[in-house]
Design goal:
It is built from six helices and 20 strands. Helix content is 18%, strand content 41%. About 3% of the residues have low confidence. It has 477 residues and is of the alpha+beta class. Strands 1-2-3-4-5-6-7-8-9-10-11-14-15-18-19-20 form a 16-stranded antiparallel β-barrel. It folds into two domains: 77 residues; 387 residues, Porin (Beta Barrel).
């Protein structure tokens, strides 16, 4: 009996606690003063107050997440997490990682060869859009070659101004500072294999790829059909850079000496590239003619040194190129002449004793084909250059005696396979050789660099022919 009474009393206590003790617990969970007042006045039940509290907490959490998301998007868009000077800055690189094995004209005919890994180029691109019409680029680069250490120098440092259209001249821009050379940047967007070596005229020593001055450039008649450009860039992602509808132009007023040389005279060079696209509307069919372009490039200036009995030597270039870009291949042929070169060193003494600039002549043909294998990422590339450094039909007086204007030319050949890893990241395997005539002359400062065919009137004769196998990886982002 006592046990039953105890059990009954315990059960009654539990019921009482459930009836009267739970309410304070629930009431304690309502920490909002306004909800407590509403419950005490009977306007809300405790259950309703707790439900309102739960909904309010969920709404507060949602607002907090939305604020955090908006802040993150603003940081990503405007770079607010960075110092003000770095907001909107784009960083990237263009780097050539190279392995070379071969022999050349400085091996004394032994063909013992050279073999080494090198960083042939390493650009670090810093680009800043300051506002809608003004931007800036700064690009340091590593001096190439098989060196114990690498020199860091400035390749580009220029302000770019976006200009309004002027009738038929559209997408106008102006560069001021150390900027692009008008021809080579264009040619390297036709021939995408700069990482293998220099373009023809630069290879033989006429000029280089950047200079200090002012330039204005733009498209003729707007932009080429976007769908056609998209077809071109499926296999050649670099091609759309100069996609003017009727062509493009570039006019520069520069030192003329090139970015790697000091300007030592007061002369400035006028440089013009004009490219015409005669059939911009032919974008369909097996061979769309919209990819056909005619280009002219000219330089008028003086060489970058004074020569006794001559003064500042003349420096002129006239270059003509016919190029055709197709979604599956590209081919280009060019012919050019020059008087002197940018550094003023192409000067010789004639039999009469008179000092004169060399008149040179160059032919070049190159082509690239997309092969229908490996997911259409493998390309076959071939190139031939022929250079005559003394195209006057006269003799030269040299340290080796009087040599004729014959048997003094050079032929340059390249045959390569290029595999497009992704975008502009390319792995290339090439065979390259140069055949020198007996009286062709180059400097003796080194062999395996980007100018191993560069002509030098004071260099040695009876050169060995050059050959190398090169593997180069281009990294671009």
């Amino acid at each position: 009996m006592k046990t039953g009474v105890r059990w009954l009393v315990g059960l009654l206590a539990v019921v009482l606690l459930a009836a009267f003790g739970y309410a304070p617990v629930r009431a304690a969970q309502i920490d909002d003063p306004l909800l407590r007042v509403l419950v005490r006045k009977g306007i809300l039940t405790e259950e309703e107050a707790l439900e309102i509290k739960k909904e309010a907490e969920l709404e507060a959490q949602k607002q907090k997440e939305e604020v955090a998301k908006a802040a993150a998007e603003k940081v990503a868009k405007e770079g607010l997490a960075l110092p003000k000077a770095l907001r909107g800055v784009k960083f990237g690189t263009l780097t050539y990682l190279d392995y070379t094995n071969g022999y050349g004209p400085f091996d004394n005919g032994k063909e013992e060869g050279q073999s080494y890994f090198t960083v042939m180029r390493a650009y670090f691109n810093f680009k800043k859009k300051i506002n809608s019409w003004l931007s800036f680029r700064f690009t340091p680069d590593i001096h190439p070659g098989n060196e114990r250490s690498y020199d860091l120098r400035i390749k580009y440092a220029y302000a770019q101004f976006k200009l309004p259209d002027f009738g038929f001249l559209t997408d106008l821009k102006m560069e001021f500072g150390q900027g692009h050379f008008p021809w080579l940047d264009f040619e390297e967007h036709i021939n995408p294999y700069r990482m293998q070596g220099c373009m023809p005229r630069e290879f033989f020593g006429t000029f280089n790829s950047a200079d200090r001055g002012v330039s204005i450039a733009g498209n003729l008649g707007g932009k080429l059909d976007a769908d056609f450009v998209k077809r071109l860039t499926a296999h050649y992602p670099i091609y759309n850079h100069y996609a003017g509808k009727y062509g493009t132009f570039w006019l520069s007023y520069m030192n003329g000496s090139g970015y790697s040389s000091e300007e030592v005279n007061e002369n400035k060079a006028v440089e013009l590239r004009l490219t015409l696209r005669p059939f911009p509307h032919s974008t369909s069919g097996m061979f769309p003619l919209a990819g056909l372009q005619f280009s002219y490039f000219g330089i008028y200036g003086e060489g970058n040194r004074a020569v006794a009995g001559l003064g500042d030597p003349d420096y002129t270039v006239n270059l003509f190129m016919l190029s055709y870009q197709h979604p599956w291949f590209m081919v280009a042929a060019q012919y050019s002449t020059s008087t002197g070169n940018n550094n003023g060193k192409w000067v010789v003494q004639r039999p009469s004793g008179k000092m004169e600039e060399l008149d040179t002549e160059l032919y070049s043909i190159y082509a690239d084909f997309t092969l229908p294998v490996f997911n259409e990422k493998l390309h076959l590339y071939a190139r031939w250059d022929h250079f005559d450094p003394n195209d006057t039909g006269d003799y030269l007086d040299t340290d080796y005696g009087r040599i004729p204007d014959s048997n003094d030319e050079a032929d340059h050949y390249i045959l390569a396979l290029a595999y497009y890893l992704t975008g502009k990241n390319i792995l290339m395997l090439s065979a390259e050789w140069v055949n020198f005539d007996k009286y062709y002359r180059i400097g003796d400062t080194g062999y395996f660099n980007e100018h191993w065919g560069a002509y030098n009137p004071s260099g040695p004769i009876n050169l060995d022919d050059g050959f190398r196998i090169q593997t180069v990886l281009q990294i671009s982002f």
